[in-house]
Amino acid sequence: MNRLGLLVAALLVAASLCYGQDSSPTQSQASAAAPTPNAIGHGAFPVKLTKTWDSSKLKEGDAVEAETSGAFKLPDGTLVPKGSKLTGHVTTAKAHAKGDPESELAVAFQKLDVANGKELNIKGMVQAVFPPPDEVDPGAASGPTMARSGGAGWQPTDIKSGSNMDNGAKPQPVTDPKSTGVQGIHDLQLDKGVLSSNGKQVKLGSGVRMIVHVDIFGS
Question: pLDDT digits over 179-196, tens only?
Fold first, then answer.
C-alpha cells in the first residue's frame, strides 16, 4: 500500500507540473497579443517658431512650441489646419559660456492640436531649419495627405512655400519637407535632431522656419 500511495503521489505531482508548463505559454501569448499603440500617420511638414528658443536660457524639460505653416490631412480624413500648435519639451540645452565645448539644443515634440479641440499624440523631431522670411511665410497652398504607418511615407511634392510663392520679395530657402539640415543660417548645424553651434548659445528667434518629422499616434 505504501508503494502504491507513493506512486499515486508521484503521478499527481507530475500531472501538476505538466499543467503548469502548458498554462505558461498561454499567458505569455495573451500578453503578446495585447494591443499596442501604432502610428496612424507619419511624415514631415513645415512649422515656424512663435517664441524664441535660446539654449542659454532653456533647460531640459522646459516646454517649447511651434505652429504649422501649412495644412494637411491625416489618413482618417482629419484636417490639420495651418496654425495648429505643436508642443514638446527640451531634451538637451547647453551654452558655450557655461563651459561646454559647444552650445547645443534639442527638443522632442509630443502633442499636435488640431481643429475642434482635438489633440494628437506625436513623436517628432527637427529635420531641417530655415531663417525667417522677410515676409510672412504663406505656408502650404494645399497640404498633401500623410501616409499610413508602414506605407511609403508622405510624398510632399505639392508643398509650396517660401521663395516659390512670394511676389518679388527677396528669395528665401524653400521649406521643402524633403529638406534636411540647416539652410541659410551661419554657424548652426543639425545632426539627428540636435542643433549645435560654436557660438555662445543656440538661439532661434520667433519666425524661424523648420521641417519637423513626426509619427502620429492619435488622440
Answer: 999 999 999 999 999 999
